[in-house]
Amino acid sequence: MKKEYPFVPYTKETYSDEEMIKRSRSFYEWADKRRSVREFSSKPVPREVIENIVATASTAPSGAHKQPWTFCLVSNKELKSKLRKLAEEEERTSYDGRMSEEWLKDLEPLGTDWVKEFIDVAPWIVVVMKKAYDLDEEGNRKNNYYVSESVGLASGFLLMAIHHAGLVALTHTPSPMNFIAKALERPENERPFLLIPVGFPADEVTVPDLKRKPLDEVIEYYD
Known about the structure:
A four-stranded antiparallel sheet has the order 1-2-6-5. Strands 3-4 form a two-stranded antiparallel sheet. It is an alpha+beta fold. The mean pLDDT is 94. The relative contact order is 0.20. It has a single domain (37-200), classed as NADH Oxidase (3-Layer(aba) Sandwich). The chain has helices spanning 17-31, 47-57, 77-98, 101-107, 118-121, 147-164, 178-183, 215-218; strands spanning 69-74, 124-131, 133-135, 141-143, 168-169, 190-199. The protein has eight helices and six strands. Helix 2 packs across helix 6. Strand 3 (133-135) and strand 4 (141-143) form a beta hairpin.
């Protein structure tokens, strides 16, 4: 006999075609203002703001609703400095030989280098961890599904929530990232996915003058 699980009614507001066009355009124009920022202010951000942002990220869909993520919220200055030191060690190795010439050339317009001062300066560092598997109360492994896809979706929600709160962020991916799990003393089933400084932009901050791909380069219609 098939086991039945509880379901609840779902309602969602709907709009006319004209209103959908207006709302979708307005949201795009707002989202298009989001930029990766590498220069942060040290101005404090309330803990509740960060918790609300993470709550929003956790509304993302996930494989079998396993929600295979942990958001580590780092504000401790000593720990941030430790993370910066370890990240810079990996990044220096990457910039000094691990990255290909093509990769380095592609990074030139962004003005990046191995110095990661933002880890010290930003009031919060959000480390997104993906859970390769879960553990029950007896320590037995419980499968998670589509882990990278699920955590990627949650990270996207996180970035939009940060933008909506009036804050800025940067997705930092030092490679390899094993040092993060060790520094934060995370369990064996968690793997670092992203290191994201969050805060206010520095005064008179600048960002690269980048252009996003036009729609005809990112859409293929199958009418």
